[in-house]
Amino acid sequence: MVRPVEYCVSLKPYTTLRAGGAAEQFVVARSADDMASISEYAHRHDLPVTYLGYGSNVLPSDDGVPGLTVLNRSSRIEIDRNGTVRAETGCSFQDLFLKSVQSGLRGLEFAVGIPGSLGGALVSNAGAYRSCVSEFLTELEIVLDGTRQTVSPSWMEFSYRNSILRRAKPPRCALLSVTMKLPKGDPKRSYDEAREYQRQRIGKQPPSPSAGSFFKNVNDSVLAESLETLPPALKVAGVVPAGYLIEQAGMKGYRFGGAMMGRRHANFVLNVKNATAAEIYHLAESVKKRVARRFGVCLEEEVLYLGDWSRVGRSHD
Asked: Which one of 29, 220, 241, 313 has the largest count of C-beta atoms within 10 Å of its C-beta?
């Protein structure tokens, strides 16, 4: 371990939902080498490890996160003239976009306005506007079961908003850095495209603390075709936005304690009055039940629940 460890550190300031309990142990990694040495030590000593970037897609339990929480602040980005990008996973996803555009590359315009780290983007295969981060990867540097190594993108088993690291029992793995290949582009066109994406996001995203889109969209062509008010383009694609289902189920603006479903965008869970993690969880469960009763589908969270949730009861409805 190359960094000092702190104990019982509140994780609220490190998550965009501003909710949840404390990390049992907490350490900050400032480089990929830090990440590697911390992870190798933890893996060798069978210490549970949770990796945290900018906290935009996670909810820690009120009862805390056992073991070691590693705050990833490794942020080096290197870009070659041939379009090869090497980036440490603690860098801001938006910074990665800006530096790539400044180097005359395109492809990451969708990242503008996404508040997370590159590592978080990889875990959930973040994307928007018909693009996702996994399509540009050529290799990843990781620590797997205590061994630092390089793997191909296929190891991550990427799919829609998913990867091997989102499994209920994921492998013991730390994401250190990636190599990407981006195509050349026109900076003005990239900036214009990114500004339009940002404009659309600002119009949808409320100011209260949130995790962005809480649930994944539903890929179901039969359901899409059955919904009279769903836009034709989405019917053709066979995609039903989670926000559409939540709104149609009458849950837009629904509140539980200090947590509320967004009125501007129904797929946002908002912390409007010092919500506990349990209140956010119960709200999400109520939404899932109502949508399941109305449409026969089970919404799946984009947000990852961290830590010990064994004492959280079933939701009210």
From this structure: 29
In tens, the pLDDT along 257-312 reads 999 999 989 999 999 999 999 999 999 999 999 999 999 999 999 999 999 898 88
Q: Which residues are catalytic?
A: 161, 213, 302
Q: For 207-306, give the CATH class.
A: alpha beta
DSSP type of residue 57 = S
Where would I find the beta strands (DSSP E) of the chain?
Answer: 6-10, 22-29, 49-52, 58-60, 65-72, 77-79, 84-88, 127-128, 131-132, 137-144, 147-151, 173-181, 210-213, 218-219, 239-240, 255-256, 259-261, 268-271, 304-306
Q: What's the confidence (pLDDT) of residue 35?
A: 97
pLDDT at res. 315? 46
Place of tokens 């050349």: 184
* Amino acid present at 114: I
Q: Which CATH architecture has domain 6-72?
A: 2-Layer Sandwich (3.30)
**The CATH number, out of the four listed (3.30.70.600, 3.30.465.10, 3.30.200.20, 3.30.360.10), of the domain defined by the range 77-188:** 3.30.465.10
For the chain, residues with pLDDT lower than 50 are 315
